Amino acid sequence: MLTIDHSAATGMSEDVRVRFVDTVGFVADDAWGALDLAEIDGVTVRVHWTDQPYHWHVNDGSEVFVVLEGAVDMRYRDEGKERVERLTPGRVCVAEEGDQHVAHPVPAARILVVERKGSV
Questions:
Q1: Rounded to two decimals, what is the model's pTM?
Q2: Is 95 helix (H, G, I), strand (E, B) or coil?
Q3: Rounded Cα gap, residues 105 and 87, in angstroms
Q4: Which one-letter DSSP state was computed for residue 8?
Q5: Are 75 and 106 in contact (CB under 8 A)?
């Protein structure tokens, strides 16, 4: 962790902590293992690594899902029909409360997920 003292420039004596995290080499012990980055007002920011699908679930709150590396086939249900959208690096999926979906990595992926702490 890098600590920067801004007291000389600002006249303030507080330290600002800045972290730089390289997620490129992150591989979890198990599918969907996570690297916790931050918690902000009950919302978690995590990087997940997986080479296996998650499970079908219904969101209990909003979720932001960003593929960092690899690809993910996001399968979701819309008006009773299953649909698939391929997510590649930089593509974002925003799922809201009540949305049904499951993520299938192709073949493995690193994903940034922002959601309420303890969410499904």
A1: 0.82
A2: strand
A3: 9
A4: H
A5: no
